[in-house]
Design a protein that fits this description.
This protein has about 575 residues and is an alpha/beta fold. The strands form two sheets. A six-stranded mixed sheet has the order 6-7-8-3-9-10, with helices on both faces. A four-stranded antiparallel sheet has the order 2-1-4-5, with helices on one face. Helix 2 packs parallel to helix 7.
């Protein structure tokens, strides 16, 4: 898997910054030769001085000077170019990650802890991903340097050839330490995300009221502190373990280095090698220690970077599989939408079981049921936010998974109870309901009630809403809901219009007005596209107007029919309707 990640990273670098990438690919191997060149130069200088050999002295000086110049200049060039490469390519990766996260057709990953953990580890880390991932070049550089060092040591005496081998235990232990570090980071990612969520909640105005009245602010702060302490403890234990492993590896090499110096000193005293050989071995041995430190850091950072590339590949594959459909949705519904044998689970017990349901083209369909009966999950399946665990959803006989997700979304409009409060200009907060027609909001604003909100704003529809992007104007819950309802009216030719408890923050008069407008819109959509209007509501006075009423219970369809048919059936729907009607009469 690491090979695939490295290939992906290198391909991205060559695609978006080929010059810098090739420069690093050339300079990095060259830098592996300079430590050995320095040691060789020093040996020749010493031997030249002691023997009075001018060629050795000049050659040694040239070697040492060349190596020193490359270390000073080449190292700086590599450092600067790597930073620039990370900035250029990392920005591209960040933009791509943001686009994938924002446009993924499905939303199941947003409710999965493991998926959120992976996204947390790559969010906004594009440049760091590239820079740390390219540390693989440094790992290769250190490996090449060990080869050069082995050749020079063998030149002094074959036994010294084994000295670099004593670096192997340190390298293996370093890899183990890197895995432990990465495992600790992964283990604490959820702690970090939860802590950030708590901090955001503590500092948001919406949560402030309940935190103050319930005196739970201190409790939330304590939870955040506990998460921080647990995260710190896990990372500290990992740090201790990593430090112990690195120390053990270093001790193995230090003992071997002392033995190598002792052997070389005996050889020099016996005249078997020149005195400069002792300086060469000492220099190479000292460099091996520094190179091991470099290798240790490079392996750790490379593992971190390639792991982030792995998360990037996971997100890319998730996006690819979620956008695999290529067929265009029909211009007009002829038959409708059909669910056949649909099951769905969030990973635990099934939420929907054996759903067989046909939504006729042009019909207004109401979903009724207790909380947790599966209404919202069924809506998400129809919108394409989730894919069934079993069974199929078809649109005029074509499986929804075969339709282009973006094309299907263009033909779906919705107003949800948990609507979004976009901190845009007021007209933009409505216009984003249909981006190609973002400036044509008059009709939608009138139908959804946003025009009334605009009239009360200090700068009308040019007023900035909310406080997230500056000193904007905050709205009441009902005003925000009118903005959201108007957003749903932006699309004039939907094949599916969903109203999932969209009027919870409105008073009875405003709610009645909204449903009247939606009833008019439903007739328009019916004639224009055969569009289906799907209502989710607990207010039976509203849903009795539907052409088809579907009653859900325990994830199954327990009743289905018109209002009159269900009342004659005298089942669950009739009982619930009579209870609510009696409550209104009293």
């Amino acid at each position: 898997m690491r090979a695939a990640e490295l290939r992906t990273l290198l391909a991205e670098c060559l695609r978006h910054a080929p010059g810098r990438t090739w420069l690093l690919l050339v300079l990095t191997p060259l830098s592996a030769v300079t430590p050995g060149l320095t040691a060789l130069g020093l040996r020749w200088i010493v031997d030249g001085v002691l023997s009075g050999s001018r060629p050795l002295l000049i050659g040694g000086a040239l070697c040492a000077a060349t190596a020193g110049a490359f270390v000073l200049a080449g190292g700086r060039v590599i450092e600067v170019q790597a930073g620039l490469l990370g900035g250029e390519v990392g920005t591209v990766l960040d933009r791509r990650i943001m686009r994938w996260c924002a446009t993924l057709p499905t939303t199941a990953h947003l409710e999965d802890t493991e998926s959120l953990r992976r996204i947390e580890q790559i969010r906004g880390l594009g440049p760091r991903t590239v820079v740390t991932g390219m540390q693989s070049l440094t790992v290769a550089q250190s490996g090449l340097w060990l080869v050069v060092t082995a050749v020079l040591l063998a030149w002094v005496h074959p036994v010294l050839l084994v000295l670099p081998l004593f670096a192997v235990p340190s390298m293996l232990l370093t890899r183990t330490a890197a895995r432990r570090t990465e495992a600790a980071r992964a283990e604490t990612a959820e702690h970090n995300r939860a802590e950030q969520h708590l901090f955001t909640m503590i500092t948001e105005a919406n949560a402030a009221k309940e935190l103050r009245l319930g005196t739970s602010g201190a409790h939330a702060a304590a939870l955040a502190r506990r998460l921080r302490e647990e995260r710190t403890a896990i990372l500290w234990r990992a740090t201790l373990a990593v430090g112990g492993l690195n120390l053990a590896g270093s001790l193995v090499f230090v003992l071997a280095f002392i033995g190598a110096l002792f052997l070389t000193a005996r050889l020099a005293l016996s005249g078997a090698v020149s005195p400069g050989a002792l300086l060469l071995v000492a220099t190479l041995g000292g460099q091996i220690r520094g190179q091991l430190d470099l290798l240790t850091n490079a392996i750790t950072r490379s593992a971190r970077g390639l792991t982030m590339v792995g998360h990037y590949l996971w997100l890319r594959d998730l996006y690819g599989t979620s956008t695999s459909g290529t067929l265009s949705p029909p211009d007009r519904l002829r038959e409708g939408i059909t669910l056949s044998g649909v099951d769905f689970s969030y990973g635990g017990p099934p939420v929907l079981r054996g759903i067989d349901l046909h939504l006729p083209a042009g019909a207004t369909v109401a979903l009724v049921g207790d909380h947790g009966s599966g209404k919202t999950t069924l809506v998400k399946l129809l919108c394409g936010f989730y894919r069934p665990t079993a069974g199929t959803v078809t649109v005029d006989g074509t499986p929804l998974t075969e339709l282009d997700p973006a094309g299907w979304r263009d033909r779906v409009t919705a107003a949800f109870q948990d609507f979004s409060r976009f901190p845009f200009l007021a007209r933009e907060a409505v216009g984003v309901g249909d981006l190609p027609r973002m400036r044509e909001i008059e009709r939608a604003a009138g139908k959804g009630g946003a025009a009334q909100v605009f009239a009360r704003l200090p700068e009308g529809e040019e007023t900035r809403l909310g406080k997230a992007l500056g000193d904007g104007t905050e709205l009441s819950g009902g005003q925000w809901q009118k903005i959201a309802l108007s957003r749903a009216f932006m699309r004039s030719t939907p094949l599916l219009a969903v109203l999932d408890e969209p009027t919870a923050a409105l008073d009875a008069a405003a709610e009645h007005e909204v449903y009247q407008r939606y009833a008019e819109a439903a007739r328009e959509w019916q004639h224009a596209t055969g569009g289906i209007t799907l209502l989710v509501s607990h207010r039976f006075a509203t849903i009795r107007m539907a052409d088809l009423i579907v009653v859900l219970g325990g994830g199954r369809i327990v009743e289905c029919g018109t209002h009159a048919e269900l009342m004659d059936l005298a089942g669950r729907y009739a009982r619930l309707y009579d209870l609510q009607a009696a409550a209104y009469r009293s």
